Amino acid sequence: MTTTRTLAPPTRTREVVGAEHSRTRARPDSRRTSTPPVHPRPRHPARPRARARTPAPGSARARRGPTGRPGADAVLGRRIRFIRLVLVVVFLLLTARLVDVQVLRSGHYREASAQELTQPVTIPALRGGLFDRNGQVLALSIPTKTVLADDFQVQHPVSEALALAPMLGVSPTRLAAQLQEHSGYVPLAANVPLARADEIAAANFQGINLIDSSVRQVPNGNLAAPVIGMVNGSGTGAAGLEYQHNALLAGQAGSEALLESPSGVPLPGTPVQKLSASRPGTGLELTLDEPLQYETEQALGAQIVSSHAVSGVAVLMDVKTGDILSMANLVANDGGAARSATTSGTQPAQMVTIGPDGPVNEAPSNLAVSQLYEPGSVFKLVTFSAALQDGTISPNSNFSVPYQIRLDGSTFHDAEPHPTEELSATQILAQSSNIGTSEIAQGLGEARLIEQVDNLGLGHLTSLGFPGESPGLLVGPSQWEPTDLVSLPIGQVDAVNALQVLDMYNTVANGGVFIEPRLVRATVSPDGVVNTAAPSATHRVISSATDGELTAMLEQVVAAGTGTSAVVPGYTVAGKTGTAQIPTVGRDSYVTGAYMASFVGFAPAVNPTLAAIVVLDRPTPIFGGTVAAPVFAKIMSYALHRYDIPTTPGAPTQGPRGANGVSQAQDIT
Amino acid sequence: MSPSATATLGPAATPHLAPRRPPLQVLEGRERRRQGRRRRTAQAISLVLVVGSLLVVVLGNAMLAQTQVRLSDMQAALSAEQTVHRQDVLALAQLETPSRIAAQAQQQLNMVTPSQVVQVPSVSLTTPLPPPKVAAAPTTTPSTTPPPTTTPATTTPATTPPPTTTPATTPPATTTPATAPATQGTSPPGSAAPAHATTGAGQSASVPGQ
């Protein structure tokens, strides 16, 4: 091998980089020589070590830099390193942002994107139905469709209007105008039946969309409307039971998503994405009995018309369960000025048209729980029950009853003048003597009277929880005045609602056990399963012995007292009449000639099954025994026969025409 | 450079290298062919498995979509039938409305709402009722006119057959004749019309003096 020495200057040799430089470093002793010897190229040149590419710190190459100019190279190197560092940092930031967008917060951005492109559409849930105690439909929702137009997509509005108008039942002119509004959302028709909606969908009109909706149908017209209530245009309960149980009835709405451009134009050919399915609402099985409700309203309406009353309330209750079987609330359309449209006597009664076009209409609210009135003589049950319970009187206790008394500057008197009489407690109640009742109340005192008022459920909301229900306006110890010892026992101070009075008498009918009233007896799930509600709560108020005495005394009211018109042929009836004055608003006086006539009672008196109350506002004649008791008898007669209640042996077989009662005027308080 | 580095490049470093590979050997041709066949077979099986799996997935998806479509159709049909059922229930409820039935009864059947109900006392079905008190026929001077040919029950009460022949079905005599006609058809609509309730026309015919 021949070795050729090169004469290249040492500096040039040291500036060689790359493979040639590495080749020189392949020899261990090459760096010691300024001119490395030239060797033939090896077959497998030694791999240069990477460390050899970088000049050693402090070496001359490192000091001079790649340009050969020591100062400029160093600056350039720093700049390159700086730029490289900046680029690395920038790329790291971009990478971090990418990870943040694509990984960490991808859901958020996906949702934001979807919100811009998708249009959520609410699918209304089918509202639960309302049924009576026998499963008869009182209110039911039927699925329908609402026809909408996106008039931006309608290219031939006139021709489309001509084709669509017969299907929707509207005029083509109006429809054509609607299709050219350029608003993007034009409701064309609501509550379209599904069969008709299918025809429209099959026609495939451009820009015409159908969305789900429903309509609330009430097959009985306005029967029991104040109790059932109503739903508003959006399908939400607005009054009555529809409002009270709206959360249960409404169900859960579902939703769908439609893809559309940011400008609001639906993207053609994109599928509808169902986000959540709607869940139908739960139905309610009420305690009302539809035919009985109808009969109650008919009887009450006829009496409102014939007595020119302003309004009336009638409630029928199951004594043992507290179920309200019928609850009628009617008002006279003309304020009670119309003459009687029905015949009286033995002539057959005509149907009373109940509605806006008839003489009476359904009340705007459930007056039985929302209307407060001074109950009058029916309130005397509080006094007699407390006195009998405490043993201060017995049914045969005698009292000397004058016509009138004076107390604290006020004069109280009975309804009709009479000499001072010796009356038993039973006679005082039967003849509804105000003075006799006040004499009994003297032995009870203020505190006991107030306590008994509370015990009988007055002043408390009932368990119905009905919207707009009032607990009543009661006098308390702080507002007590000396004259209240006479006024309260005869029902002149406290204001209560009709249902509270009925609860009070139902307690007597139920053997002295108070039972909460109820209007809902079961819930009906969407698949038809009926879940019975819990029984009403009960608590004893009056002892059994006292209750028996009270029942016998109340029976005498109907048999030989002021309530003879309440006789139901074949049954014994116990009850009490009331003819109460109406207070003047804002003044400590009563409206002249205005009375609330009422009758409340139960039947059969021996084994009570049904209890009812009838209240008429400003009737003519004014007496509860004359105008309210016959309505009670009519309703009770129908109900007793409807439920196959056995007759009472020895009960009168005829109605009140042959009864020999006392004057009806004696129940005025 | 350190002396040790120099030493690793020299011949003395050979014993420290990695273990040598087994010497290469020439395979027989049949063995090579067999190995190649096995490899091709394995590749073919893998390919078949992959393609088959893909086909199964595609087929499953197709069947799933088809079932989904069928399910959707059935749900739509179910919804439509439920709607029809609801409409039928509503129509039935409208037909059963008490106001409609009462109006039909009054307008088409000429029925009337009773103005008064008289309760007929319940009687025992085992104890025979006492015979009704029938007034004697008035003693009038015999006339030459022939007796009336009309129905005896409506013209001559005295000739009425004695009701003692059917005592169990005869209502008690306490029912007043004046009110008996008013009880006809007075049963309230929907009532169960128990045996002790208002009487029918057949029973009121035996009331004396009618």
Report what the structure shows.
The complex is a heterodimer of chains A (about 675) and B (about 210). Chain A is of the alpha+beta class. In chain A, the strands form 7 sheets. In chain A, strands 2, 3, 4, 5, 10, 19 and 20 form a 7-stranded mixed beta sheet that branches. A 6-stranded antiparallel beta sheet of chain A has the order 13-12-11-24-23-22, with helices on both faces. Chain A has a 3-stranded antiparallel beta sheet with strand order 1-8-9. Chain B is mostly helical. Helix content of chain B is about 45%, strand content about 0%. Chain B is built from 5 helices and no strands. Chain B has helices at about 5-10, 30-95, 100-105, 150-155, 200-205. The chains are: A alpha+beta (about 675), B mainly alpha (about 210). Chains A and B meet through strand 3, helix 12 and helix 21 of A and helix 1, helix 2 and helix 3 of B.
In a nutshell, what does this entry contain?
The complex is a heterodimer of chains A (669) and B (210). Chain A is α+β, with helices and mostly antiparallel strands and 669 residues long.
Produce the secondary structure layout:
The complex is a heterodimer of chains A (669) and B (210).
Chain A: H1 10-15, H2 19-25, H3 60-64, H4 70-104, H5 106-117, E1 118-123, E2 130-131, E3 137-149, H6 157-168, H7 172-178, E4 186-192, H8 194-203, E5 208-217, H9 225-228, E6 230-231, E7 237-239, H10 240-244, H11 246-250, E8 254-259, E9 273-276, E10 283-286, H12 290-307, E11 311-318, E12 324-332, E13 360-362, H13 367-370, H14 380-390, E14 398-401, E15 404-407, E16 410-413, E17 421-424, H15 425-431, H16 434-442, H17 445-455, H18 484-487, H19 498-509, E18 513-515, E19 520-524, E20 530-532, E21 538-540, H20 544-560, E22 574-583, E23 590-603, E24 610-617, H21 624-642
Parallel strand pairs in A: 2-10
Antiparallel strand pairs in A: 1-8, 2-3, 3-4, 3-5, 6-7, 8-9, 10-19, 11-12, 11-24, 12-13, 14-17, 15-16, 18-21, 19-20, 22-23, 23-24
Helix pairs in contact in A: 6-7, 12-21, 14-17, 14-20, 15-20
Chain B: H1 3-9, H2 29-95, H3 98-107, H4 152-155, H5 201-204
